[in-house]
Amino acid sequence: MKLKLITAFIIAINVLLLIQDIPPNIIILTVASLALSFIVAGKKLRTFFKVAFLVGSIVLLRYHFKTLLVTECGVSFALILSSLKFWELDEERDHFNMFLILSLCECCIFLLNPTFVIFSFGLAKMLFFFYYILKIRNYDISLLNPKRLLLLVTPSIILSLILFYTFPRFTQGFVNTSDMQYIVSGGNSRIDFKQLGPLNTSGETAFKTFGLGESNLPVKLLYWRTAVLWHLSNQEWSTSNSNLRQETPVLTNTKLKYDVEVFSNLKDLMPVLDGVSSVINSSLPYNSYSDGSYKLKTISRANLTYSLVGTYGNRLQESSDLMLKKGLKLRSQRKDEISKAYFANATNSPVDEERLKELIKIFKGKIFQYSTTPPMYNTVEDFLLTGKDGYCSHFASAFTYLARVYNLPARMVVGYLGGELNPYDNSVLVKEMDAHAWVEVFLQNKGWVKVDPTALVAPERITMSAQEFNNKLNPYITILNFQINRDLFSSATLNNLSLWLDSLNTKFSTDILNFDREKQLAVLRSLTPGNLSVGWIFALSLSAFLMIFWLIFYFYGKKKVNPNQKRYQRFLKKMQSHGLSKAQYETISQFQIRCARNLPSDVNYIDREVGHYLDSFYK
Questions:
Q1: Rg, Å, the chain Cα set
Q2: Alpha-carbon distances, residue 196 vs 374, 382, 419, 435 (angstroms)
Q3: CA distance 110 to 106
Q4: Which of 107, 183, 389, 571 could pair with 609 in a Cys bridge, judged by C-beta atoms 3.0 to 4.6 Å apart?
Q5: Greater pLDDT, 485 or 23
Q6: Membrane spanning segments where (predicted)?
Q7: pLDDT tens-place string over residues 527-561
Q8: Model confidence at 597, in pLDDT bands (50, 70, 90)?
Q9: Overall average pLDDT of the 142-147 stretch
Q10: Which residues contact 220 (CB under 8 A, 6 or more apart)?
Q11: Hey, where are the domains in the chain?
């Protein structure tokens, strides 16, 4: 019963770890299977339920995973298998079968979330489960003798040689195993203005950047673009950049070089520093566009990493007639109404820079207010005419609208603002709550100039991090009508611990997950003579590790002698040194009398040692 409770606890933990990754119906089926295994006692009824759950799970998997979600489907099936096998934990062979199924489930969980914490936690769960099985069986580890070790080593050497020479990529990073697990995207590129909110306050890390630590750039003020939004038709923005595709962007001044790692919740867009950027290399294929954004050709579960060079700031570039036309396009039946409300007293200067300055002044004079809970506006016009409260998406949409009314080509840019420097691995962490929207206005002599309308409304949103600003706007957490100050949950120690764990995950990903063939060969060659074949080095290394494990098991499994028995053996050896050996027919008391008669000077010693032996083993 104790093993069943431990197994149920491990399966329940796996359910909690996967609750965000697999469908709720699969979770419900797993929990129901576990619960019924404790209730249903009849053998026939148990068999009926197990068959029913198995058939139901296959139907559910077929229903939920019509597209190529290979990893999620595999995880769901492994989780269901563990709950069904839980019904059969009666014999010893069932224990080891459950161990194999749980190990498979851990591998699947690791594929979904390949982090140091998940790997360590999964390893600890499996080691604990295996140890408990061995404890139940009273397994004698000394049974692993040299003969059995030889039977284990010989096929291992042959297999390692075959794998190394036949499949040279088999040791390559685990991440590559999911490269072909493509997801059929059901996303729509059109973003309704009404669906631009609510404001994302998730603290999950969206992506991480390396190489900016030495640039002395203020990470809290860095803008990261992901997409440029062009069309405003019936209050809908659309990312219609497919006709602006440019395979080989040209750079003039290269001042920055940095690497980006995007996490598993990525979309098809690739964040880059605002300004002029060019991707040097990428782990996944992508398209580049002349508007300065990049997009994956196919969405994949594989990790996305890429390197960039470029300059940070405004996009100093020539603009095509198509881009200017798109930047002025505006279909709105209320355009004249907006123009009268905002530009009735405008000078309408022929110089675009002067018009932009005047537009900024007009926008600031409207007295908009930043809010994380604004009312719902049906259209951009409604916000401009009657709205007051909003956040970055509202302000960027409104400013782009006004710029086009005022004959200034403008486009809305979505991405991120800010980041947090991790001193443990010198990386910049950008979180989902850093999501932001701003505007680019085209000026004849300066190209596309960045304007952030949010900075005109709430300057502290730019100078502070998103989390600091959100805490300032909402200093309290409401639980059951009680307001709790957020400062109670903020701790420098916890934040440093979080950054340290994040750096561990980075090192784990770099040194373990991405331990590819080149790194493997470099390590092996640094440790061995250059004339020896790398394949043989691999095979011999495996054999050496097996031998080390056997030695550990051998010495650990040796029979331990009772200390009282050791003391008695020392007494017998000392008597032998005086020519007195205990005969087989002789009792210990008879031997004591004979020793005392021959060694009268050692009577006290003889009596003490024999007395200790008798007290230890006969009382």
A1: 35
A2: 12, 15, 22, 11
A3: 6
A4: 571
A5: 23
A6: 5-20, 26-42, 63-87, 99-128, 149-167, 534-557
A7: 666 666 766 766 777 677 767 766 766 665 555 66
A8: very high
A9: 55
A10: 418, 419, 463, 464, 465
A11: 2-139, 204-488, 563-617
Other C-beta atoms lying within 10 Å of the C-beta of residue 392: 24
Q: Which two tokens stand for residue 452?
A: 């952030």
Task: Place 440 in a pLDDT band, splitting at 50, 70 and 90.
Answer: very high
535 strand-pairing partners:
none
Per the model's pLDDT, the better-predicted residue between 487 and 198 turns out to be 487
- CA atoms within 13 A of residue 343's CA, in its CB half-sphere: 20
Cα(551)–Cα(145) distance, rounded to whole angstroms? 10
Report which of 397, 408, 315 is spatially closest to residue 355, judged by C-alpha positions.
Answer: 408
Question: Reduced to 3 states, what is the DSSP secondary structure of residue 228?
Answer: strand
User: What pTM was estimated for this model as a whole?
Assistant: 0.65
* Surface-to-core class of residue 401, CB atoms within 10 Å of its CB (0-12 exposed, 13-18 middle, 19+ buried): buried
Helix axes 2-17, 92-112, angle to 10 degrees: 10
- DSSP string for 466-483: HHHHHHHH--EEEETTEE
Could you tell me where the DSSP H helices lie in 18-69?
24-39, 43-64
Pair 338, 332: CB distance under 8 Å: yes
CA-CA distance, 173 to 302, in Å (whole number)?
11
Look up residue 613 and give its two tokens.
């032996």
Q: Tell me whether the omega of the peptide bond preceding residue 198 falls within 30 degrees of 0, making it cis.
A: yes
Tens-digit pLDDT profile for residues 215-261: 778 888 889 988 888 887 666 777 766 556 665 545 455 578 899 98
Q: What are phi and psi of 309, to 5 degrees?
A: -130, 155
Written as one letter, the residue type at 392 is: C
Report the C-alpha gap between 422 and 574 in whole angstroms: 67
| pLDDT: which is higher, 566 or 488 | 566
φ, ψ for residue 396, nearest 5 deg: -65, -45
Q: What is the spatial order of strands in the sheet that 304-312 belongs to?
A: 275-282, 304-312, 256-262, 205-210, 427-431, 420-422
